[in-house]
Amino acid sequence: MARRKKIYEGKAKILYEGPEPGTLVQYFKDDATAFNAEKRATIDGKGVLNNRLSEFFMRGLTQIGVPNHFIKRLNMREQLIRQVEIIPLEVIVRNFAAGSLSTRLGMAEGTALPRPIVEFCYKDDKLGDPLVSEEHITAFGWAQQQDLDDMVALALRVNDFLSGVMMAVGIKLVDFKIEIGRVWDNDFQRLIVADEISPDSCRLWDIETGQKLDKDVFRRDLGSLSDAYTEVARRLGVLPSNVTHATKPTLIN
Prior knowledge:
CATH superfamily of the largest domain: ATP-grasp fold, B domain
Strand content: 25-35%
Number of helices: 6
Low-confidence stretches: 244-253
CATH topology of the largest domain: D-amino Acid Aminotransferase, Chain A, domain 1
Structural class: alpha+beta
Radius of gyration: 18 Å
């Protein structure tokens, strides 16, 4: 399918005008970033893997009745998605202490939390996507209280699904983040899962060894990010047959 007008380019994806009104083409890049893009690299094959993995997870959500923007995969790097009005929040679900939660609360990484904890961050790269409370969200009009209740419910359903899928292949879902958007069916508004679900947006640890299989491999220089993502795809049975990747990331100055 010929590409159309570019709508938006982010750190890991490009959105193009779709073939029908209300649709977009989402292209997965090979770029990897960390620390608010202070660390950057190009990793061959990353976009192909994330396209396939996000398709796998979104299809699974559709099967259990969790609404999302995915329509179909177009090729190795592109998928057709529904156009949504993105709520300017990252919704984070944490099952175990890791990353910023460990730093903020002084908890050892890997500590099991008493229950899944949902957090919100305001999407603004210049501010470093700061953590915000529900009071901030409603006061500044980013979402209404009913929206927040629906977002939490959606996030916890995604958590149940992802946790089960990962556990079945020997992977611990430590935490993940999603984005949620608004769509309208006639005059009725719905909230649906958008953006992507991939190792870029999840923390994934091998249950037995604790080996990291997510973007922390890149953040912390723990080895090959391509190998980590490939292992996740292999375990889930969605590994494309023609993925190629560099054995070592190529850093961009």
